[in-house]
Amino acid sequence: MFRFSMSRGLLAASLLSLTTSVALAQSCTPKVAAGDLITPGKFVMSTNPTLPPLQYVDSSGDLKGMRIELGTEIAKRLCLEPEYIRIEFSAMVPGLQSGRWDMIDTGIFFTEERAKIMQMIPYEDQAISVSVAPGYDKKITGKDDLAGMTIGVEIGGFEETKTRLLDKELRDAGKQGLTIQTFDNFALAYQALRAGQVQGVVSIDAVAKDYDARGDFKRALSGLYPAPVALAFKSSKLADAVSATLKEMKVDGSLKTLFDKYGLPMVAGDYSVKGPGR
Length: 278
What we know:
Layout: H1 2-27, E1 42-47, E2 50-51, E3 55-57, E4 63-64, H2 66-77, E5 81-86, H3 92-97, E6 103-109, E7 119-132, E8 150-154, H4 158-172, E9 179-183, H5 186-194, E10 200-204, H6 205-214, E11 218-233, H7 236-252, H8 254-262
Parallel strand pairs: 1-5, 1-6, 8-9, 8-10
Antiparallel strand pairs: 2-3, 3-4, 6-11, 7-10, 7-11
């Protein structure tokens, strides 16, 4: 009798879940054509969850952070099911171009060069910081104080490009340059800093600020090379749909609420798409 009652309960729950799913599907029509998506009905996004508080994995193994919340909300408003693929940054642009995901949701810095090969929507203002170990005793008040340091950075991104530019600026000024070590992701770079394998890590301001607030690493220098951060797409129609969604979120105040929650700056622009043919 107990087994029979339990089966009926599970059946009822399953039917309720199915009915709810069908009702939701019927009441929400995707705002993006199936042909403009990797998988019809889904919004597939790439992320490298090594950047707290923007994108990271919590103690339960769940994806968290501002950019995860933003991507999920965009998917919801487009009537699509969000799906995240965890991948190193160096693989993101090639993966986008080969059709492995619909959108790069990892805070890719906007540059005119990148906008020539993919659709981009600047949405967040960021700059880069230098983190050091809590006990690092050398005073750092400007770029010149970084001369001679061994610096870790994620490979392939804006941060690596600017770290190499910083190295060149120091050498051109007649100072000792940087010894640059690249890592597959920022988590590995910070692990190397904790282990004393590098003297500093270059990452974006928000990440360095979060580590500093938690007492893990000291933010020695911030606000370097400010630039907008963007979402990136291969499909121009999908990019237009996301642009319209961001504008809608700005008008209703939900975008500002999300940014304020994490203490992050929004771009001054209008969330228009920049890319080939624009």
